[in-house]
Amino acid sequence: MRLILFNLRTDADDSVLGFTTDWINALADRVEFIDVVSTEVGTLRLRPNVRVSGIGRDRGAGKLAQLANLHAVTWRILRQGRIDGCFAHMNHLFPLLTSPLLKVFRVPIVIWYAHGHVPPLLAPAVFMADRVVSSSASGFRLKTSKLRIIGQGIDTARFAPVERPPSGERRLLTLGRISRVKRLEVVIDAIALLRREDPTLSIRCDLIGDPLDDDGRAYRSELDLRISHNDLAERVRLLPGVPHYRAHEVVAQYDLFVNSGDTDSVDKTVLEALSCGVPVVTSNAAFEQILPVEMKPLSLVPKNDVHALAAAIRRVLLLSPAERAAHAMRGRRLVVEEHSIGALADKVLDQFRQLGAKSRREHP
Predict the structure, then answer these.
(1) pLDDT band at 272 (very low <50, low <70, confident <90, very high)
(2) How far apart (Å, rounded) are the C-alpha atoms in residues 111 and 93?
(3) Radius of gyration over alpha carbons of the chain, in Å?
(4) Architecture of domain 2-153+340-362
(5) Alpha-carbon distance 103 to 109, whole Å?
(6) Per-residue pLDDT reduced to its tens digit, 23-57
(7) Which residue from 35, 80, 98, 259 has the fewest beta carbons nearer than 10 Å?
(8) CATH architecture of the domain with residue range 170-338
(9) Average model confidence (pLDDT) across the chain
(10) What is the Cα–Cα distance from 353 to 333, expressed in whole angstroms?
(11) What is the pLDDT of residue 215?
(12) Residues 29, 31, 32, 36: is their CA dihedral positive or negative?
């Protein structure tokens, strides 16, 4: 099988989208060749059977130039040889804009989209696509018979538990982009509440991530002020994002992963933490569908509820070693069995096999 893959940013060092390198490599291990067409290109750590072409946004190209480059690159790839499928990862515009070319060459289109927001052009992109895949039903809000839920893709060999010496200080982590939708102020307020209610509880919380735009930078400044106002400078730190290829080293060092986001779509950082055997407390409603029943009382809290989040953090931190190990094992097993990167790659390729079989029946 030979694929064309549309991507937003192909950069192994990127703190937010670096994981797409893992996805591309997992697919590349299962196919003959992949041509990646990416809005931006950075550090490449890809299999030899992967070629990457950028459309120039990272080189300062304007929108018209990017559009021309997109069509030129796609045309070149399609003319060079057989393409069995087009996979678009969180990039519904590329398959929409190139759909006339792809349809002429009878290339089936599969779009991955997993986000609570529904952009205006997603519906026409879905109309032109042959199949849509997502990590959960809550991560795709349009009604369509083309939707298939296939889970997330976590490198469970890399995101794995590690042994570390016990410490009197309990370390909490949030990891991801600095954005208002992450509701990090709720985490800060929960830590402040815990400090007031139980000064003997030794907690440090690291909020690791980078803002992606001006609003994110303004939000980060607001978080700094909130930390200072609550006298938490020695307990809560805002730290720069880490490259995705190092994320597993960071996550595994913490006692608890806190996710107060308001996206209602599966946040892969939560699954990465579970894969590392790190307990999780989250207000993300998407995990209501994903977590096993026995994990929900400890791991799920209502949105924007500071008192509930503080109570949940305290409950997890006060688990006995045996209770903590059992809870960690359940989380790890969930990710390994239902959200591994290998299983995801197989499910993506299954979509193209099904579409290919359907096309052969319709066009013998």
Answers:
(1) very high
(2) 10
(3) 22
(4) 3-Layer(aba) Sandwich (3.40)
(5) 9
(6) 999 999 999 999 999 999 999 999 999 999 999 99
(7) 80
(8) 3-Layer(aba) Sandwich (3.40)
(9) 93
(10) 28
(11) 95
(12) negative
Do 144 and 128 meet the contact criterion of CB atoms below 8 Å apart?
no
List b or e across 68-78, with b for residues whose CB sees 16 or more CB atoms inside 10 angstroms.
ebbeebbeebb
Do the Cβ atoms of 94 and 70 come closer than 8 Å? yes
pTM assigned to the model: 0.90
- Give me the pLDDT at residue 356, please: 83
DSSP-derived letter for residue 272 is H
Distance between alpha carbon 101 and the CA centroid of its chain, in Å? 29
Q: Where are the domains of the chain?
A: 2-153+340-362, 170-338
Q: Do domains 2-153+340-362 and 170-338 have the same CATH topology?
A: yes
Query: pLDDT category, 360, cuts 50, 70, 90?
Result: low
Q: How confident is the model at residue 139 (pLDDT cuts 50, 70, 90)?
A: confident
Cross-strand pairs, 121 = none
E-assigned strand segments in 55-168: 85-89, 109-112, 131-134, 147-149
For every residue of 295-349, DSSP letters joined together read: GHHHHB--TT-HHHHHHHHHHHHT--HHHHHHHHHHHHHHHHHHSBHHHHHHHHH
Quick: pLDDT tens for 105-137: 999 999 999 988 899 999 999 999 999 999 988
Residues 205/187, Cβ–Cβ less than 8 Å: yes
Model confidence at 363: pLDDT above 60: no
pLDDT at residue 116, as a whole number: 80
CA-CA distances (angstroms) from residue 179 to 48, 214, 223, 262?
A: 35, 10, 11, 10
Checking if the pLDDT of 358 tops 90, the result is no
Q: How far apart are the first and last CA of the chain?
A: 19
Q: Which two tokens stand for residue 169?
A: 């200080």
CA distance 3 to 81: 11
Residue positions counted in the chain: 364
| pLDDT tens figures, 220-256 | 999 999 999 999 999 999 999 999 999 999 999 999 9
Q: Is 64 helix (H, G, I), strand (E, B) or coil?
A: helix
